[in-house]
Amino acid sequence: MKSFLANWLTQIKDVQCVHSAQRFHGGSGAVYVMLRKSQEKKLENRERHQKRMS
Q1: Which tens digit of pLDDT belongs to each residue from 3-42?
Q2: In this model, does residue 53 exceed pLDDT 80?
Q3: From CA 33, how far away is CA 47, in angstroms rounded?
Q4: 32-35, long-range: CB within 8 Å, 24+ apart, which pairs?
Q5: What number of H helices and E strands is found in the chain?
Q6: Helix, strand, coil abundance in the chain, percent, nearest 5
Q7: To 10 degrees, the CA torsion angle through 9, 31, 16, 47?
């Protein structure tokens, strides 16, 4: 079932990667999922950091 989940998640464009969780985070029954940041949030971050630099 876990391999099907990993395969399915990687087909979603906003999912960057999937990895098995460490034992203290749930072990083989859990997964880490890294999501891509939206263009809107990337722009918001850039603007916030540029204001801090000036």
Answers
A1: 899 899 999 999 999 999 999 999 888 999 999 988 898 8
A2: no
A3: 27
A4: 33/9
A5: 2, 2
A6: 55, 20, 25
A7: 130
Virtual torsion, Cα 9, 11, 12, 14, nearest 10 deg: 90
35 strand-pairing partners = 15
Query: Cα-flanking dihedrals φ and ψ of residue 14, to 5°?
Result: -85, -5
Specify the pLDDT at position 54. 61
Sign, Cα dihedral of 20, 26, 30, 32: negative
Is the distance from CB of 35 to CB of 15 less than 8 angstroms? yes
pLDDT digits (tens, 9 = 90+) for 34-48: 999 888 988 888 888
